[in-house]
Design goal:
five-stranded mixed sheet, globular, 10 helices, about 350 residues
């Protein structure tokens, strides 16, 4: 018998709903919030208000696109954290009400685990599912982690940022350069036209498998401040080379730790996940390492890299098969923990 899962994602500023039939996505609808561009970053209160406006139309569109009725849904999965509390509460409240009204199970999903399990969505554009065990570099605006995955729900964080995330480093560097929000994708676009060796930025000396990006942000700030004293048009004149050099540095910091993780664990099955996994430079670095070191690399379809409900639905599917259901009293959490 086929199983239909409705997934809800509302951890930050995108409202998304997806319908999954077993492991195949029938619909994945995302409503973006353009209002944050005016503020140079996500404003939590505005995000939660927009989720309230978007969630019912988005779910309606997803059900229509999947060509099913709500009565065919077997369970509803929703992001319970980490994320912005107001945003999470909108998704959680809707999911609880939907579950109660239809008498179907409620499934809470860890947002970061869902990014990893997006690799198991049945999609012809990402045909290979990783084999256990594998390593996954999860990189986003709020998190940077190396995770050892033994099965769908046995995940161990073996390395993580001690301060800022890689995605935040991209966005802050872009903001310093005067690029509009969100700046990370713009740096990626400009970097393709620049010289990665034009400018040198320091790499942090952090022991083990942990990361740090706060020092890099500071060095970029001070470097540009000094250069602008000499030439007020320095950034404009060197925008593409600055973008290329900054992106190269961030990717090298990530890849150095990932190589170390592979060396220490002996696991050469390596995946990337999270919003920064959409970065073309990181994707190419993974492919290059695969060719150089014999890694078996798994790169998600772009649609499943950034925040989306498809990844929530696939995680919900595996938890449904396990009978791992939530109660109506469950409370969203804002910071990452090893919840399943």
């Amino acid at each position: 018998m086929d199983t239909y899962i409705l997934g809800i994602e509302s951890s930050c500023d995108d409202t998304s709903a997806a319908v999954l039939k077993n492991t195949k996505i029938l619909a994945n609808v995302i409503a973006n919030q353009d209002v944050h561009k005016f503020y140079g970053g996500v404003v939590p209160e505005l995000a939660s208000r927009a989720h309230q406006q978007n969630i019912i139309p988005v779910v309606h569109r997803a059900l229509n696109a999947a060509n099913i009725t709500k009565k065919q849904i077997h369970a509803i999965a929703f992001t319970n954290g980490p994320g912005l509390l107001g945003s999470l509460l909108v998704g959680a409240s809707f999911a609880k009400g939907f579950s109660m009204s239809l008498g179907i199970p409620l499934i809470e999903v860890n947002h970061m685990h869902a990014h990893i399990l997006a690799h198991f969505i049945d999609d012809e554009k990402q045909p290979a599912n990783p084999e256990f065990p594998f390593l996954c570099l999860t990189v986003s605006g709020g998190h940077t982690q190396i995770v050892l995955i033994r099965d769908y729900f046995a995940m161990q964080v073996i390395g993580q940022t001690i301060d800022d995330a890689a995605g935040e480093a991209f966005d802050k560097a872009a903001k310093i350069m005067g690029l509009p929000y969100p700046g990370g994708p713009l740096i990626d676009k400009l970097a393709g036209q620049g010289d990665v060796g034009a400018f040198k930025f320091p790499h942090p000396n952090i022991p083990g498998l942990d990361f740090s990006f706060s020092g890099l942000k500071t060095s970029i700030l001070y470097f540009l401040r000094d250069q602008l004293k000499e030439d007020s048009n320095f950034i404009e004149k060197n925008k593409v080379d600055l973008s290329a050099s900054i992106q190269y540095t961030i990717i090298e910091i990530l890849m150095k730790k990932l190589r170390k993780a592979v060396s220490e664990t002996g696991i050469k099955q390596v995946a990337i996940a999270g919003g920064v996994s959409a970065n073309s430079g990181l994707r190419q670095a993974m492919l290059d390492e695969s060719e150089k070191s014999g890694w078996k690399v798994y790169i998600p379809k772009l649609e499943y890299s950034t925040d989306n409900a498809a990844m929530i639905a696939i995680t919900g599917y595996f938890k449904y098969l396990k009978g791992d259901f939530a109660t109506q009293t469950i409370i969203p959490f804002t910071r990452y923990a090893n919840q399943s």
